[in-house]
Amino acid sequence: MTPILTVDDLWVRFPGRVRTVEAVRGVSFEVGREKLGIVGESGSGKSMTGRAILRLVPHPGQVTARQLTFEGIDLLTASEPAMRDIRGHRIAMVLQDPKFSLNPVMPVGDQVAEAWRVHSGASWKESRRRALEMLEAVRIRRPERVYRAYPHEVSGGMGQRVMIAMMLAAGPDLLIADEPTSALDVTVQMQVLAILDDLVTERGMGLVFISHDLNLVASFCDRVLIMYAGRIVETCRAQELGAARHPYTQGLLRSLPRIDRPVPELAVLDRDPAWRDGPSA
Amino acid sequence: MSPPAGSPVLEVERLDVVFGHGADAVHAVRDVSFRVAEGEAFGLVGESGSGKTTVLRVIAGLVVPAAGRITVAGEPQGPHRPRGFARVSQMVFQDPYGSLHPRHSVDRVLVEPLAIHGLARRGEADRRVERALDEVGLGPSFRFRYPHQLSGGQRQRVAIARALILGPRILLLDEPTSALDVSVQAEILNLLARLRRERGLTYILVSHNLAVVAHLCERLLVMNSGRTVEELTVDQLRAAAPSEPYTRQLLQASLGYDRQAAAQLMTFD
Amino acid sequence: MSRAGQLSGAAPWRAWLLSETPRSRAQARLGQAYVSWLGFRRNGLAMAGLAVLIGLLLIALCVPLLTDRSPFAQDLSARLRPPNAQYWFGTDELGRDIYTRVLYGSRITLVIVGLVVVMVAPTGLLIGTAAGYMGGWVDTVLMRVTDVFLAFPRLILALAFVSALGPGIENAVIAIAFTAWPPYARVARAETLTIRNGDFIAAIRLQGAGPLRIVLGHVVPLCTSSLIVRVGHDMAGIILTAAGLGFLGLGAQPPAPEWGAMIASGRRFLLDQWWVATVPGIAILVVSLGFNLLGDGLRDVLDPKVG
């Protein structure tokens, strides 16, 4: 599969007064038109990796890499106007909580329409029409009613679907989703993931799915990267996760409680300091 | 469905909870009843808005019900809990960052309940505090730290130590591991299982995570929109034999993403 | 790597304070205080304000060391002299040394500000936290009383009190205190409303704590930072109100060297003998500005908003 995104030796550093924090330490991977999952616990650097791709790392973070290319465009040296064009239009991002991503004083439909207008320059009428189409595409049953609603009037699952509609309005090639369903109930999670699944398949998009939920990522994605302390410790196909080789992955899998496999005591992860300094897979 | 033999240590009968008045009234809990025997671990499972946390807070006395009766250790409970209730039942909260006072050291957090109940004589308090810390796997070096110097897992251990220091019989656990990393969750779940074994505690565990409930509990109650859906044992859950479609759907969704299953999801309102 | 480890070359007491595993209550508390101090020290504004406060305190304490004249000593043959080698800030209309009077006036200013703050901050704090925590009719009654006091412009209300009680420093202090407490009650109540929903409050309630223990031990410590910030900002206003009262002849009475009163009596000579009114005016300016900076600096340190 030809990759649309190539990341080679990505580092994200935060220089501070006392010491420099290295959030991402030499991460390399490729994303094609597939669903790639990045799994890690807090502090693993998974969110920062997603942000670094779009150069959205907060100040004073510094992003360096040997290569960071998207469809032939060098993301490291692209100008800020070029990045603005890429963000949302070519690469879209969906975050965890729609409450923080949606403008609270604008009806959600208008926000979707605006996203479309910004990237296509179409008229308001045309944008409105497209917005209703997008709301339907994310399985919202009464798009006209939801169009007029404000963000605080819609449920979490609905809000997340609106976010997806906004992000997809411009037809991106790559979608980066950072814990998009973690704040949702488990059944709503399934519904939102099904929407993402269908959209990715229909449009041939690439999807980078960042999550702490190993089980979910293993069942949803095609390939999985496991991150620990800023490095990738394991890469494998999702179905092969059970045969993971790295002790951190194995430890994570064993420490999860499973309904179908009761154990009297969960295996506790024994952190080996060598994992921090081992080579990035 | 009744608990094993022996009088129940907790009895909830026809509980109704309403927030707000008139047109804005929200019926958070409707007609919920269940019993828990001493030494049992009972789960309350549901999605957000199911009312499971509200039920727990009613048991604790933090919320006053509109109707229904709570009986703890044979004593029917009125709108306000008596002083001694603190030595019968305690609660562990979901957010380890919110359940400890930001300006109080671990020592203060653990001594205060003793002081309130007159158990803090000089050497006695020191002894109890050190034993409490030891029991939750924290050494004496943690004693004078402040919450911002502790990790999420360590804070939750302190919260558990605080809950146990008065020697209660019942622990009310409100999603105790949902805010923690997976590896830390395993440690806390093991700790909770061990403490229950050693002290013969009764647990009422609220969680949206069926796997966690299945690991710690023996029986569970499934709730949706304030109402009881069904009560079943964990064995029945594992055998994929819940009778209600809502429970089956919840169980299916908990096992991971499945495209076909997602297509068949129904909305229950 | 712990901070203590990095400072292994530095003084051992520093390492003791910054230790991540304190072994006693005292060590833990002192360590926290030290860390807060380090944060404070990094803020330029806060340090400038602190310098002004310390300067004021030192001057007030050491006045006899800085001048050997009396603020009341008159020399009618040396009236309205401009600043020179003998009288550094010149003399006023009764031949008194303005430099000496300004120095002694700092004591009066400090006393007024100190007394007002000591009376007002705890009162406002207790009223606000009680109202916020108890809610119900207690809240309503306390807040309506607060509203009544807030409705009056500060200086006017102070004037009314002083007119009723009679002029003088003590009455001026009481009058200013009466008008200064409502904002503290408001701030404390607003903070309490947020704090009381926290899980840690629910936890201590479940442990059988009564409202008094909760308010004093759990709510009040969290309100103090915003209150301190407010005090810092308010001090400038208190100084100006005291000066206003003095200016109107209702605060310190002549011949007391209160800065506001000095401006009042020097007003007549403003055009030709500008130093009589201007020097005490500059003193007020410097001290107010210093307290304002201190308030800003404290706010940045204690209550930073991520920007």
Distance from N terminus to C terminus of chain B (CA atoms, Å) equals 25 Å
Tell me the overall shape of chain B: globular
Q: What CATH architecture of chain B do you see?
A: 3-Layer(aba) Sandwich
Figure out the total of helices of chain C.
13
Number of helices of chain B: 9
Sheet with the most strands, sense and barrel status of chain B: 6 strands, mixed
Total E-strand runs of chain C: 0
Structural class of chain B: alpha/beta
Distance between the termini of chain C: 28 Å
Quick check: average pLDDT of chain B?
90
Helix content of chain C: over 70%
Assigned CATH class of the largest domain in chain C: Mainly Alpha
Q: According to CATH, what is the class of chain B?
A: Alpha Beta
What's the quaternary structure here?
Answer: heterotrimer
Order of helices and strands of chain B: EEEHEEEHHHEHEHEEHHH
What is the total number of structural domains of chain B? 1
- Rg on CA atoms of chain C, Å: 24 Å
Label this structure with key terms.
heterotrimer, A: 281 residues, alpha/beta, Rossmann fold, six-stranded mixed sheet, five-stranded antiparallel sheet, 11 helices, 38% helix, globular, B: 269 residues
Overview of the structural elements:
The complex is a heterotrimer of chains A (281), B (269) and C (307). By secondary structure, chain A is α/β, with parallel strands linked by helices. Chain A has a domain at 1-84 and 222-281: P-loop containing nucleotide triphosphate hydrolases (Rossmann fold, 3-Layer(aba) Sandwich), CATH 3.40.50.300. Chain A is 38% helix and 22% strand. A 6-stranded mixed sheet of chain A has the order 7-8-9-3-10-11, with helices on both faces. In chain A, strands 1, 2, 4, 5 and 6 form a 5-stranded antiparallel sheet that branches. In chain A, a hairpin with a 6-residue loop joins strand 1 and strand 2. In chain A, helix 4 runs parallel beside helix 7. Chain A is globular, with a radius of gyration of 19 Å. The two termini of chain A are 19 Å apart. The model of chain A has no long low-confidence stretch (mean pLDDT 88). Chain B is globular and about 60 Å long. Chain B is α/β, with parallel strands linked by helices and 269 residues long. In chain B, a hairpin with a 6-residue loop joins strand 1 (8-19) and strand 2. Chain B has one domain (39-60, 78-263): P-loop containing nucleotide triphosphate hydrolases (Rossmann fold, 3-Layer(aba) Sandwich), CATH 3.40.50. Chain B contains 9 helices and 10 strands. Chain C folds into 2 domains: 1-42, no CATH class; 52-302, MetI-like (MetI-like fold). Chain C has helices at 3-6, 12-17, 25-41, 44-66, 98-134, 136-151, 154-165, 169-180, 182-195, 199-206, 211-247, 259-266, 275-302. The model of chain C is unreliable at 1-8 (pLDDT under 50). Classes of the chains: A alpha/beta (281), B alpha/beta (269), C mainly alpha (307). Chains A and B meet through helix 8, helix 9 and helix 10 of A and helix 5, helix 6, helix 8 and helix 9 of B.
